[in-house]
Design a protein that fits this description.
Chain lengths: 410, 196
């Protein structure tokens, strides 16, 4: 019974914790500009994160060690450092975007300028990272994030033409008002938002924090195979809601407030309240995850004691990196850099760095010295290799597309 | 900032260590001699570091300026920027209309409404300011700017009025204040369509 509760809780938190500010921005913006013409990218991205997150969870469960720890040992300090540098930079940018996102959610509820909230949010993120137990933190924000299901209810209540929507999603076309370069730029942004590197680092480090063993491989699989697709479904309904309400009106969303308009239009104030709670929860959860991921990645690379299982005095350098990352992450939005723009750049640059994150993971997951008989299967390797090729192509195309499409501006 | 400017800046950044003006001094500073070597050769590792730094700086500038607009030298480019501006303004106008519609139906909280309208007004003001900062290349472009400004100015003004009313809690006044928005929205859409 306890195991069942644990599995159910894991799946629910995986669903609620899947969406972050990157998904909120990318899904709403692509839905409003391209309808469901980019829904296929979300499917590709979610499938990709499922494959690699399962790998990361399996590596942690079997070896008892997290991904960065093994990457450095298996591939050497140089490759490990490259992996660390790319991932840390992107995760730090994402942390800044998430802190900005939490502040924007609060601004939307209070109409008080978000900049006033940024230092408070930064402090609270640090406080939770410092004081609150891992399971409590992970479960609380994950379960609160389920409030975003309200967007799915709004879509269902809107009584859309499901057949037409399915046709639009399976027969993607570039709208007349958009360019092909903008289409592919946003495709990469969506891929980056679905496969953000911190997700695998947090997932594998979280598995170590929760002391997963071989006995937890089933929990790992169920979390990933059920929780992640359902979480991805939340990102998809955000896109659908935008396609239903914002696209026909020609609204190109550049604020979080516009992402909430479809839900409030269909469900009224209760729907809006739940959507705002969902925005707050998913950005808060991701802010905590990215802050910890910054600490995890650096501490694991340098071999320092790390994790929330240890008292702060037992892992001082890990805590220091977390604190420094939160300070930098809160400092960036305080420069008045628009958090939504920051998010757009974070997810696109994240796409550019994806191969650096996922190739080492694929190599480690094939090493019997760490995984014994639990190394990747042939099918898993085949799919992961195809993904790696896709990620390399996306990575190479990112910067040129960003320049040619003027960052998606057309 | 302009994309053109960004590209030029990147070129300059990329050429920094090798540009004609700096070549001599760079060589002087970074040439080293191996004890067994008779002639001076560039210090390759140092140079490589400089190359990497320059490329990194260049990429950073490219990324930073990728979304910017600015100087144009031809009519079609100016017209295209005008169309993009009209589309962005229409998006702000549509956002405000939707928010007012929801507020009238009691579907938005006062604070969310005020925030949404404030952002719409700010967006419209920003796109007008950005467009007006672009130098029209010729007389025909002047006329185009006047035509678009004739749509943007009332749109910005109306959105400002809506923002003020929402902040004061005068939700009942919003529908009448927003009455001109559908017509402005149509005209902005027509303007954009004609120049795409």
């Amino acid at each position: 019974m306890k195991k069942l509760v644990e599995i159910a809780l894991g799946i629910l938190t995986a669903i609620g914790g899947f969406v972050d500010i990157g998904d909120l921005v990318a899904s709403t913006e692509t839905g409003a500009r391209f309808g469901l013409g980019l829904a296929w990218v979300l499917v590709v991205g979610v499938l990709g994160i499922i494959i690699y997150a399962e790998m990361a969870g399996r590596v942690a469960s079997v070896s008892g060690r997290a991904v960065f720890d093994l990457v450095r040992e298996r591939l050497g300090a140089g490759v490990g450092l490259l992996n660390l540098a790319a991932s840390f930079f992107i995760t730090l940018l994402t942390l800044a975007a998430e802190i900005g996102g939490v502040a924007l959610s609060l601004q939307l509820a209070t109409s008080v300028n978000y900049l006033l909230f940024v230092p408070i949010v930064g402090f609270l993120v640090w406080l939770v990272c410092w004081r609150v137990r891992f399971e409590v933190m992970d479960n609380a924000v994950g379960l609160l994030g389920l409030a975003l299901i309200v967007v799915a209810v709004a879509v269902w209540k809107a009584h859309p033409q499901w057949g037409a929507m399915l046709h639009s999603a399976t027969h993607p076309v570039v709208p007349r008002t958009e360019t092909h370069t903008a289409y592919w730029y946003f495709a990469i942004a969506l891929l980056g938002s679905a496969m953000t590197p911190y997700e695998v680092f947090f997932f594998s480090s979280g598995a170590v924090e929760q002391r997963w063993t071989r006995a937890d491989l089933l929990v790992n699989r169920l979390n990933v195979y059920i929780g992640f697709p359902l979480g991805g479904l939340l990102a998809l309904v955000l896109m659908v809601a935008a396609a239903l309400v914002l696209e026909p009106r020609g609204i190109d969303p550049s604020h979080l407030s516009q992402a909430a308009l479809p839900t409030s239009l269909i469900l009224g104030k209760l729907g809006l309240a739940l959507a705002l709670l969902g925005f707050f929860a998913c950005t808060s959860g991701a802010a905590l995850e990215t802050a910890l991921s910054c600490g995890y990645s650096v501490a694991q690379y340098f071999g320092w004691p790390w994790g929330k299982l240890l008292k702060p005095a037992q892992a001082p350098r890990f805590q220091l990196v977390v604190l420094a990352s939160i300070t930098l992450g809160a400092g960036l939005p305080l420069t008045t850099l628009d958090p939504i723009k920051l998010t757009e750049y974070a997810i696109v640059l994240s796409a550019a760095a994806l191969p650096l994150t996922y190739l080492p993971l694929l190599i480690v997951a094939n090493d019997p010295a760490y995984l014994g008989d639990k190394v990747n299967s042939g099918l898993s390797n085949a799919i992961a290799s195809v993904y790696l090729v896709v990620l390399v192509v996306a990575s190479v195309a990112t910067i040129p597309l960003m320049i040619i499409s003027k960052a998606g501006g057309g | 900032m302009t994309v053109e400017w960004g590209v030029i800046a990147v070129d300059q950044a990329l050429q920094l260590p090798f540009s004609p003006s700096s070549h001599h001094s760079w060589d002087e500073r970074h040439m080293t001699r191996h004890p067994r070597q008779r002639s001076w050769t560039p210090a390759e590792p140092t140079r490589r570091r400089f190359d990497l730094a320059a490329v990194g700086l260049g990429l950073l500038l490219l990324v930073a300026t990728a979304g910017c607009t600015g100087l144009v030298r031809s009519d079609p480019v100016y017209a295209s920027k005008a169309a993009t501006t009209a589309a962005a303004a229409a998006s702000a106008v549509e956002t405000a209309q939707l928010a007012v519609q929801e507020a009238a139906a009691g579907k938005l909280f006062g604070r969310s409404l005020a925030q949404t309208l404030a952002e719409a007004a700010s967006d419209a003001g920003d796109v007008q300011a950005t467009f007006d900062a672009i130098q029209p290349p010729d007389g025909r472009a002047d006329a185009l700017r006047d035509q678009l400004d004739g749509l943007l100015t009332p749109a910005v003004s109306t959105l400002d009025d809506l923002r003020t009313a929402a902040r004061r809690g005068h939700v009942d006044q919003l529908p009448s204040l927003a009455a001109s928005l559908p017509r402005l929205d149509d005209r902005l859409a027509q303007f954009q369509k004609a120049r795409q």
